[in-house]
Write a structure and sequence with these properties.
Its EC number is 3.1.4.4. By secondary structure, the protein is mostly beta strands. It contains 1 helix and 27 strands.
Length: about 300
Amino acid sequence: MSAMYRCYNCSRICLCKECFSRLHSDKTVHESFQPISDSCILDCKFKLVDKSTLIKDIKFLNNGLLVVATNAQHKKILTCSISGMNKKFIPITGCAERITVMEGNYVAVLLAEYGKVNIGIVDIQKGYVKKYIQDTKCSWNYRSAFIYIENQFFISDFEKINVLDQSGKLKKQIPCSTPVDLCCDFDLLRIYFINELSSKMFFIDVEGNNTPKCTDHNLKDPKSITTYDKEYMLVLCLNENALYNVIKVDYSGQSSETVITNIRIPNCRPNICFTRLTNSLVMGLMGTVYIYKKE
């Protein structure tokens, strides 16, 4: 029996790809065509600002808000609800590249401008920058990742992960090759990162005392990684059809399962994050936010 597919745009369920093609003239809209066997189904999507907007990073906060770094509204970050409503811009000095969630109502924003890497600590509730950590002495490239764990900042570049304290002082450097995204398992106290070139996932302890170890997962062209629950992570990676899947992988490296299939990724840096608050996967792609709900 042919696979069943759902169309998000018209809520129609089709028997097969051929039926879908006959019913839809626009075959380039990747999000409209999804197998009903996917365990996370597209629930809503919205444009952040306009067609020229490029999402650089997106994170979910504990209060249900999204916080986004974009190339639009120069030197501002944006917050909005999970449905795209109540958009607010927060002024910030520098070009926002990456965001990481801190305690309480705070996020840290990685700012790259004129060859310098700064960090802005933003109070989301009050809508202002509490303080800046100037000139961290870290290098930056568009693949660099950024995460905050136990009063420390982790910033990656081509060859290492830099570990900084809250004053911006460099504590150590962990040698590793081209980490493009980071997430943390707080139970095992491990930091996981994906390597786009080797198509592998590695982990280190949060103190950075051990050399990076490779998991058993074979990932093709991984783009983004996020924590899912106490047992699994989600990874956005290439499939055999030259499209992208989101797969659920366990921390031990023993098993994996596809949860979203056949995502078309243009030439941009996609970002995913998951929240247990609403059991939703959020993906920022070009200038559009996609919200997938766990079935």
